[in-house]
Amino acid sequence: MKVPKHWKTFLGLIIITLLVITVILLKGPFYYQARSYLVMYAFSKYEAGKSILRKDNITLEIPGGISTPEKDWYPFVMVFNADEGFSRYTGRDLALTILYNFGAFDWDMSSSNYYRANSPYYNSFYGGYLVKANSGLERYGFTPEGKLDINQVMAVPEYDFKYLVLESLGCPREKLTMEVLTYDLTENVFYAGYQGWTKVDAKMLVNSPSHQFRGNRRAYIQYGYPLKQAGQEDFELMVARGRIYVRYFQEFKTTVFLYILTPDQGTLEKCDREILSKTVIR
């Protein structure tokens, strides 16, 4: 095979081009998305291996953003375990597995829509919780008579939102807020293939995620870099809507929650209709 006369120059141009592309990717917005996807996929797989799902052979499949034609939510649902932290928080011996998703990254942004105040997915999450009493003798979230215990139910998203999400972003502990303003209960709802769910619709006062960049926090790997509008207070208070479906599964000895948290009522209804209701449990 005949070697081109100026092969060294040609090879040099290829190398330079590849280096330029690499630098652009590293400095550009897509780098932060790719970093988030790769790190969170690997970390979530690790956490799933230690979860209630794996230990008790439970299937809880919640669709991710890749299931919809819009670029709305993060591509896949992530998993995290908070057994020790939640047990300390409640003063009880419990296991807690969290499944969650938040607003997607736009292609030209190094921040996810979780931070963008003009996005329908601002400060929005959906997913599931599995809570199990390690004694196997109590039904978390319910009274001995089988009625929903709203304080136990709301303790789960409160712990998650305040101490796992906001604290990881640097919100001072004295500012952490999730206050239920009003709520309505609907009993014996058919959802996700099962009868017997209790639906909780709540209006809450919560912190926004908007804040000044606070150094290289690990949470920024997940959500991207924070956005803050001029004159806006760090982690200022805002009103959000929450919807939680709660059901105790006797066969698993586990209480399952399916939830949505968002300031936007339209986003809540759309997520419920198009994503969360398609959850598979077995």
From the alpha carbons, calculate the radius of gyration and give it in angstroms.
22 Å
Biggest β-sheet, characterized? 7 strands, antiparallel
Strand order of the largest sheet: 2-3-4-8-7-6-5
Number of alpha- plus pi-helical segments: 7
**Protein structure class:** alpha+beta
Element-level helix/strand string? HHHEEHEEHEEHEEHE
Overall 3D shape? globular
Terminal residue distance:
61 Å
Please state roughly what percent of the residues sit in beta strands, choosing from under 5%, 5-15%, 15-25%, 25-35%, 35-45% or over 45%. 25-35%
List keywords for this structure.
single chain; 282 residues; alpha+beta; seven-stranded antiparallel beta sheet; two-stranded antiparallel ribbon; 7 helices; 30% helix
Overview of the molecule:
With 282 residues, this protein is of the alpha+beta class. The chain has one domain (7-281). The chain has seven helices and nine strands. The chain has helices at 7-27, 29-48, 52-55, 83-90, 150-166, 218-223, 265-274, and strands spanning 60-61, 78-81, 94-102, 125-133, 178-191, 194-207, 237-249, 254-262, 280-281. Strands 2-3-4-8-7-6-5 form a seven-stranded antiparallel sheet. The termini are far apart. The mean pLDDT is 91.
Give the secondary structure arrangement, pairings included.
Layout: H1 7-27, H2 29-48, H3 52-55, E1 60-61, E2 78-81, H4 83-90, E3 94-102, E4 125-133, H5 150-166, E5 178-191, E6 194-207, H6 218-223, E7 237-249, E8 254-262, H7 265-274, E9 280-281
Antiparallel strand pairs: 1-9, 2-3, 3-4, 4-8, 5-6, 6-7, 7-8
